[in-house]
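ugh ok fine here u go
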Amino acid sequence: MPKSDTIQDLRKLSKIEREKKLEDLLDELLLLKSKNSMGGAIDNPSRISTLKRTIARIKTIENEDLLGIKRS
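structure:
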């Protein structure tokens, strides 16, 4: 399992890289949630919350960029 991305790691990515990563994470989350809802056993149930957290971090960074907020 890949390690959870920290906010500092995500801030280092370019806008295009973040958008691609967000798309990939949303696809993975959709797959895991649908598999879970159909009664299938997923290997790592905590991965869903990790994905949600990372998606929220990326969206936060995108909103900060949109509003012109500078963070280090």
